[in-house]
């Protein structure tokens, strides 16, 4: 009788041989933990700095410039650009050029010089509660600090020992999500995550399953042309993806009370554009993977950077600059800006056209490469 260890060692050796014969899956099992630790270490942070701030200075006095400098020297804000009107300020916030706006009214310097209380408005984009909460606290803190400093100067000038009133009153106004409700921010983004995962995984595994079962050869010998075969395989998943989109939106509105402030038809149209990219990724994976397990692992591998570097969980403003640059290569980044802009801000195509153009370029490049490689694999 063969000893237990000999039988067991033979089985272990066989399993190692099978693992080594699948180098892609083996490499992915070692690379994925490195990527996860890398992303979690650098991208998983809510410590937001350098929030883009636009300034509408209607006073143009040394006092107003002193207030602007107080926000400029703080580590929390970066002055994006000055604006000439409230409409221009709103447009920059709508287009995500800025996350906050400071409005200094006429007469601000005169009120301070006249020992009166001067009010300024601080506008916050509440569509991202994490960034907005940080900006809200920082704006109030900076305003209170400058107000206290001005009060001390007044007391010294008058010889007083008691502060009668705060000279500067920073009135904060939160747009789009006044309650800073996190579900308003997360639910629309779930559309992008669900669509990318489902369409990529279903497309990749479906085609690989056909190859494993040998039925792909039966399809090849039919009168179907290659583009007809590709289209026939993709259309069902497009329909499923649209049903998923409607399902998520319905749940968001009914259960989480997420308001849809924009054009629903525009949202669905741009969702179709995003689907071209995700289906292209699925096709690429199907042309590379040999087994369904390998296809699923590859899908997860492509999903990880999208989750961490798209602004889904963690604000991009909190990430290192080099990671923010890398995030421009993530198609989901542009779709999340689009879907959050339409759902929460109610913006139109004029505010999100740069993201639409970027997404269209991604869709064309990815789908073209996927179709070309898939046709080659069929041949």
Quantity of strands, as a count? 5
The span between the termini is: 51 Å
Helix content: 55-70%
**Which structural class fits the helix and strand makeup?**
alpha/beta
Residue share in β-strands: 5-15%
Number of domains: 2
Q: Total number of helical segments?
A: 14
Order of helices and strands: HHEHEHEHEHEHHHHHHHH
Radius of gyration: 27 Å
Coarse morphology: elongated
Q: What is the spatial order of strands in the main beta sheet?
A: 2-1-3-4-5
- Average pLDDT across residues? 82
Poorly predicted segments: none
Please give the largest β-sheet.
5 strands, mixed
3D structure, described in words:
The chain has 379 residues and is α/β, with parallel strands linked by helices. It has two domains: 51-175, abc type-2 transporter like fold; 181-378, no CATH class. 68% of the residues lie in helices and 9% in strands. It has helices at 4-20, 23-42, 62-73, 86-94, 108-113, 129-158, 182-213, 215-220, 226-255, 264-288, 292-309, 321-326, 331-345, 349-378; strands at 51-57, 77-82, 100-104, 118-125, 168-175. It has a five-stranded mixed sheet, sandwiched between helices. β1, α3 and β2 (77-82) form a beta-alpha-beta unit. α10 (264-288) runs parallel beside α14 and α13 packs antiparallel against α14. The chain is elongated. The model has no long low-confidence stretch (mean pLDDT 82).
